[in-house]
Write a structure and sequence with these properties.
By secondary structure, this protein is low in regular secondary structure. It has one helix and four strands. The strands form two sheets. Strands 1-2 form a two-stranded antiparallel ribbon. The chain has a two-stranded antiparallel sheet with strand order 3-4. Strand 1 and strand 2 form a beta hairpin. The longest helix has 12 residues.
Length: about 110
């Protein structure tokens, strides 16, 4: 129905376009809803120097220990502990989170 701009009277009737009679696809609704939810996220990451703040060097081969860099400290329990690696206590993480990840989505 087409209404007059000055009153609530119906001026004429226009048939509804055929696109409005098409069934609603649940898979598209779910996809759009999921993609729109991603636009509310905030970027997060770790400091690029995290886990790399030790003075450490590898002991090389011939000492029957892994070739991971080791903390060069004496007089403390940290001396000789592995450093830098993702498998070491206090080491950096594997593939650290970055803020330049694709956080948001464009939806048509």
């Amino acid at each position: 129905s087409v209404y007059a701009s000055t009153s609530d009277k119906i001026v004429e009737s226009v048939p509804l376009p055929a696109v409005f009679t098409a069934p609603i696809r649940d898979d598209i609704v779910q996809f759009v809803h999921k993609e729109m939810a991603k636009n509310n996220r905030q970027a997060y990451a770790v400091n690029r120097l995290s886990g790399m703040k030790h003075s450490a060097a590898s002991w090389g081969t011939g000492r029957a220990v892994a070739r991971i860099p080791r903390v060069s400290a004496s007089g403390t329990n940290a001396g000789g502990a592995g450093a830098f690696g993702n498998q070491c206590r206090g080491g950096r993480m594997f593939a650290p989170n970055k803020v330049f990840r694709k956080w948001h989505r464009k939806i048509n």
